[in-house]
User: Which sequence fits this backbone?
């Protein structure tokens, strides 16, 4: 069993956390896996999967073009040389000429359903590879029932052909934080003792950050001592963020914290008055689950897979600035309600584990191998 981790970016966003956590859980479960990664990640995967074989690529494949070329030419030969019978490609693309069974993870359907939320190049690229994977892979994995249903609808495929395997949550990194962890997160952001509303995610159109900024300003404008809004995560390409920030009254504080180190995330999320994630649609919603596990009161939307993660343990709102403002205003005025949601969120987060996800992936690998053998007979 080979997992191609070469598409994982250096800064670990959602896909990176999926691959890292799955690899570690499979290794703990005793699965015989080989992880192929870029040279910069060799030591990391050796630590995450000490009982597994880690193989670094010989060449630099940092660009998308170089990585795709390597995937189509070198990876099939490497899989044959290593004697693996299943190749798991965890981010849409796959080697087309491999003799091994192929498993591909398709993370969401928004490249079809909400193409304007992505750059045009990115939307075309992932639509093409999603269609190819559904047609050519031995088996495709999706992280939620909502993603399965949307992909079946937009590609005219069958929902039953998609293996639904939910993500887990890394409870070592995401847990109710200690006072020391909260203080360290506050120091990293420069908050002092000021209360704050947290957002964690890339500043891209799908995350609906402009509506959050405008909704926050509306919700706290009349408060004598308003909290801050802290936007943490890697910069994206949402040009409306700057316009929304320019319209925030000077007396209100909005902090662009940028990318935060992993060790500060539990303190950042769990130390907030609430975590706001008014996304326009998610294939799963890992940031919501991680906030829940960190003991946060979470506000999100009912779009796509988010209710599958949040259930009754989070608060919901619409996607407009007015909807966000009304929900924020209500939650900020109700400390006991926030505490009750935070407690419910911690309980619900325990239902999602990487150990269970790894077990389900192992079953998927076996099913893919049997399908491949049957198709080759």
Assistant:
């Amino acid at each position: 069993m080979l997992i191609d981790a070469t598409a994982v970016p250096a800064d670990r966003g959602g896909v990176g956390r999926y691959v890292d956590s799955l690899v570690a859980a499979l290794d703990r479960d005793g699965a015989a896996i080989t992880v192929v990664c870029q040279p910069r990640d060799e030591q990391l995967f050796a630590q995450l999967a000490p009982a597994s074989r880690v193989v670094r690529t010989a060449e630099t494949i940092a660009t998308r073009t170089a990585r795709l070329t390597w995937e189509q030419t070198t990876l099939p030969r490497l899989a044959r040389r290593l004697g693996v019978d299943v190749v798991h490609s965890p981010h849409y693309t796959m080697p087309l000429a491999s003799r091994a069974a192929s498993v591909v993870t398709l993370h969401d359907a928004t490249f079809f359903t909400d193409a304007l939320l992505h750059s045009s190049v990115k939307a075309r690229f992932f639509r093409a590879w999603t269609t190819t994977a559904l047609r050519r892979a031995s088996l495709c994995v999706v992280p939620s029932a909502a993603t399965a249903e949307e992909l079946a609808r937009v590609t005219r495929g069958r929902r039953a052909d998609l293996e639904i395997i939910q993500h887990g949550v890394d409870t070592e990194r995401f847990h109710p934080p200690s006072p020391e962890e909260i203080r360290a997160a506050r120091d990293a952001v420069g908050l002092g003792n000021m209360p704050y509303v947290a957002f964690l995610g890339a500043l891209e159109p799908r995350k609906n950050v402009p509506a959050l900024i405008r909704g926050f300003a509306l919700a706290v404008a009349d408060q004598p001592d308003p909290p801050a809004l802290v936007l943490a995560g890697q910069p994206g390409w949402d040009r409306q963020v700057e316009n929304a920030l320019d319209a925030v009254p000077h007396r209100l504080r909005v902090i662009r914290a940028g990318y935060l180190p992993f060790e500060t995330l539990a303190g950042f999320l769990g130390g907030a008055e609430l975590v706001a994630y008014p996304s326009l649609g998610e294939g799963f919603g890992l940031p919501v689950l991680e906030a829940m596990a960190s003991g946060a009161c979470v506000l999100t939307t009912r779009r796509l897979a988010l209710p599958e993660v949040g259930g009754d343990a989070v608060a919901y709102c619409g996607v407009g600035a007015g909807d966000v403002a009304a929900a924020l205003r209500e939650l900020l005025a109700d400390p006991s309600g926030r505490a009750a949601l935070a407690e419910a969120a911690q309980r619900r987060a325990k239902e999602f584990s990487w150990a269970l996800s790894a077990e389900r992936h192992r079953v998927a690998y076996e099913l893919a191998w049997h399908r491949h053998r049957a198709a080759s007979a």
